[in-house]
Structure prediction request, 74 residues.
Amino acid sequence: MPEKHINCRGMQCPGPIVTLFKEIKTLEPGDIITIEVTDFGFKKDINAWCKKTGNELLSLEEKDNVITAKIKKT
Prediction:
């Protein structure tokens, strides 16, 4: 299962979610995508987005003002 990493640091809402939406379309079910953001609104947005799209949020961490989410495409 391939992994993809996207850097959305410095982007404001809705930029990170829009970028994630475009990038996850290029993946196969079971693939993992990791996204890094600095917009703190992303924390609640990613939970809602995963519920809406059916993708699985594997982890959500915050360190040094960077939020890192790992999502599995379903």
Q: What stands out?
A: The CA atoms of residues 5 and 34 lie 5 Å apart. The chain is about 30% helix and 35% strand. The longest helix spans residues 42-53. The radius of gyration is 11 Å.
